[in-house]
Amino acid sequence: MKKISVILPSLENGGAERLHIYLANEWIKENYKVDFIVLKNKKQLINLLDKRIKIKFINVSKIRYSFFHLFYYFIISRTDIVICAMWPLTSITIIAKKFSFSKAKIFTVDHCPYSNNYSKDLNISNKKLFNLIRFTYPLANKNIVVSEAIKKEFIKYANIKESKIYTINNGIYFKKEDLIKNNSLKKKLFNINDDVKCIVSIGNLKPQKNFLNLIKATEIVLKKNNLKLFIIGDGLQYNILKNYIYNNELQNKIFLLGYKNNVMPYLVNSDIYVNSSDYDGFPLVLIEALISGTNIISTDCESGPSEILENGKLGKLVPVKDTNALAFAIEDVLINKKNKNINISKNIDKYAIHSVAKNYMKLF
Fold first, then answer.
1. Which residue of 39, 292, 325, 341 is most buried, as measured by CB atoms within 10 A?
2. In terms of DSSP H, where are the helices of the chain?
3. Which CATH number fits domain 3-168: 3.40.50.2000, 3.30.559.30, 1.10.357.10, 2.40.40.20?
4. For the chain, what are the domain ranges?
5. pTM for the complete prediction?
């Protein structure tokens, strides 16, 4: 039985973290042994993991402190396949594996574009970031990216050979019964009457997701429409968003629901899903929204949304950080009530997690 080691920064709620949990659960079904090595002691998603998967928490305060822990793990683990996700953890894992003389195959997985916004968040220049990628990534067996935009970025800025980069789109896990619209469930989930329209947005409450822009856009639309906004997730900006809502007397119209283990019923029973990110990779929740059949509006940020929505064929795309454009798009969807998700079954087949897991296995 081959052993896969999945190395992640944390198990906090995020699309990349959920993807690797879903993949691991599928690989267990395919008779692989799977271990998780997690750097930070954040366990929000731990209950989603198959009980047969072993988890080791390193519990380091900074990613760079993980080097010796990973080096030692490679010496003692006898793993066959290493999946490491998200730079700089990817580069550190590659170097630790190299010094340990482990014979394991190593696969990097990158979930978002690193130029501009992301490098600013990490407080590192584009040049330095891509030099480190250029130095370490060729030492991996394969470099996996979740969107074509990230692949192009790696080729352009890091000079990684195209033959070493593989695009595998994210996949999702869902139950078919969750895809059934239910009006009584809608009233229960959102605590509303029949005539209220529901906007849903989901994600980690961090600056990148720009929920504040969505709240401001909703505030504009509220002047003429009977609707409510429900934001699902938690994170660093919870208090900032909460204070804005209360300071502007929006607490009866805009709600922070916190983390939810299963978001599909909220998506299926919503009128609109909005993705307000400033930048993204290949957002898992946008795929979930697509499969749910709800109307979709997304910022046209670099990487995933335009790929998922087929350049606007499957949902509206609006400029990043443009509050008025986002408000106009919401109002337009409310008026026209046109659902653009014309082939849900096609999307289910494309993004089903068992299909995506097999795409990874082909590279193993």
1. 292
2. 15-29, 67-77, 89-100, 117-121, 126-136, 148-157, 183-190, 211-221, 238-247, 264-268, 284-292, 304-308, 323-336, 344-351, 353-363
3. 3.40.50.2000
4. 3-168, 176-349
5. 0.89
